[in-house]
Amino acid sequence: MVRIRRSNLIFALIAFSIVFWFLLYWNFSSIYAHQKGLRLKSKFNSDEFQAREQNVVNEIEIYSELYLENLAEVKTADDQRQYDAGYHSHSFNQMLSDKLSYTRPLPDYRNKRCKDQHYSSSLPQTSVIICFYNEALSTLLRTMHSVLARSNVELIHEIILVDDFSDFDYLKSDLEKYIKSYSKVKLFHTPDRFGLIRARMFGAKQATGSVLLFLDSHCEVNIGWLEPLLDVVNNDPHTVAVPIIDMINPDKFFYEASDLVRGGFNWGMHYQWDPLPSNLVKDLFQKPEPYQTPTMAGGLFAIDREYFYHLGEYDSGMEVWGGENLEMSFRIWMCGGRLVIAPCSRVGHIFRKRRPYGSPSQDSFTKNNLRVVHVWLDDYKRYYFHINPRAEDMEFGNITGRLQLRKNLNCKSFHWYLENIYPEQLSKLPDLNHSYHGQQNGPNDPIASKVIVRARGLLKHASSGLCLQSEKTVYDKRALIQLAVCKPGDKNQLWFETEQKDLRLANLLCLDVNADEGPYARLMKCKGSNQQTWIWSKMGYKSQLVNYGTSECLFAENVEPGALLTTKSCSDSPFMLFSLVM
User: Fold this and answer.
1) Residue 546 belongs to domain with CATH number
2) What are the residue boundaries of the Ricin B lectin domain, all occurrences included (predicted)?
3) Any idea which of 41-50, 303-312, 326-335, 519-528 has the lowest mean pLDDT?
4) What end-to-end distance do the CA atoms of the chain give, in Å?
């Protein structure tokens, strides 16, 4: 009898092992199209996930760069179709995203001292608000599941998903059925396309948690991300907290650590990342405490709910996206609040090379910036208009209510903000005696029958002293752009800047950045797109070239001849400085 029981036990264990490994293999290898329903499940339940989180360093074979590269490999014609369709719809590798767990192990890039931090046992509960429009299902659910898996459940009051009138069926009733298994997740649909700004306002109205925590819909929160943000707000409800935003590669989904930086802006009203002073970096290494930032990127932040409304929430006169992050940053600082980055909180974000969908209004970005300029910049708005002269004649709507809000809140001047919060920007004021070649915010005008050239010359890279040219000939479409020894008079290095704010090599093909074509700058047929719009932004005696489609700066990988040009988040890197030499 004992032998029979023992043999039965062995048989049961073998059967269980076979079923377990079959299910594990099935989950790793399955790919489901969104339209076939929400069948993707998290690979690890919460208990297993937490155990794996503790040993993530030892799991090099899972989600290592080599593993992800192999998983991303396009092997068949069907793979290629899925890959192309994903990039077309979402501007990232949806095919790979669909293969990954919703709670995949992530490397812990926090300062080691963050793990020894202790927080109050009475931190406030938060409503996490995630707005989306036509988002890929796997990235949306990975955002949601990462919050559920990596957060103290007692601190999550609710997760509010806001569908901003998406076109895809899988983001409607199918998603509603899926989230029924998660009591803290709620799904709301806007009655029309609101755009990100108004969709967030819509989501905030549904929220009842003490703290509002906004996330983009293609994020992965990391270990211990929540407490540092809530601790900041708990200690001072008038302080807004932002995490360190790590980078998720859009093609291979590598999770890459970001340096400690802070937010800034240039006088074209573009957000930029600024490096921290070396002494502050040393201090933060020894004691990773929240530090001040002049502006925030705007996609991810925590704010006391009552303070959000006291401060005037978002400007409802703004459209879709753009400018709202600077507007709120200025308003927080000038009206008695503080804005800080919590270095012990890290959240990964997919940084796409382009936005996969256009704005309902072509001029929304410029209109939004004009509302910021006229409400908050005081006399400093002349510097914006010096760079963007044509913006002076554009409509921006009624700002009476926002001006009254500023008065009611007894806000300080923009000069106070520059002197006390962002003094570095005072040294970067545009020279009002210098012409900026018709630079301006906003998308290209339709291509005119006759192109008006504003300037021509060598496009020179400041750090290397080298010039930009095609890696092939001036006639080769899709040719990459590289650095080369300058040759004045050579048509292969002669660039033309036009009224449409594009840059044409030999007055033929345009400088273009497009995620569908790859990560590098290249020559493409001129078509007046945002990806071919380049805005000069002065930095000292040189200038950055900001791409309107990506809001990133042109960047040389190194200072050697043959180095390729790409775009990166704008900073004060000398590798981002250029000039047009007549």
Assistant:
1) 2.80.10.50
2) 456-581
3) 41-50
4) 97
User: SS3 for 47?
Assistant: helix
Q: Can you tell me the distance from the alpha carbon of 469 to that of 460, in angstroms, rounded to the nearest whole number?
A: 10
> What's the whole-model pTM score?
0.72
What value does the mean pLDDT of the chain take? 85
- Of 350, 164, 338, nearest to 246 by C-alpha is 350
In a domain, 471, yes or no: yes
Secondary structure, 3-state, 130-165 = EEECCCCHHHHHHHHHHHHHCCCHHHEEEEEEEECC
pLDDT classification of 304: cutoffs 50, 70, 90: very high
- Which residue, among 385, 394, 388, has the nearest Cα to 535 in the 3D structure? 388
What is the Cβ-side half-sphere exposure of residue 460, based on CA atoms within 13 angstroms? 16
- Give whole-number Cα distances, 347 to 93, 321, 341, in Å: 19, 21, 12
Cα–Cα distance list, 145 to 142, 173, 182, 534 (Å): 5, 19, 10, 38
Q: Is residue 443 assigned to a domain?
A: no
Our count of domains for the chain comes to: 1
Q: How confident is the model at residue 559 (pLDDT cuts 50, 70, 90)?
A: confident
**Predicted local confidence at residue 26, as pLDDT:** 38
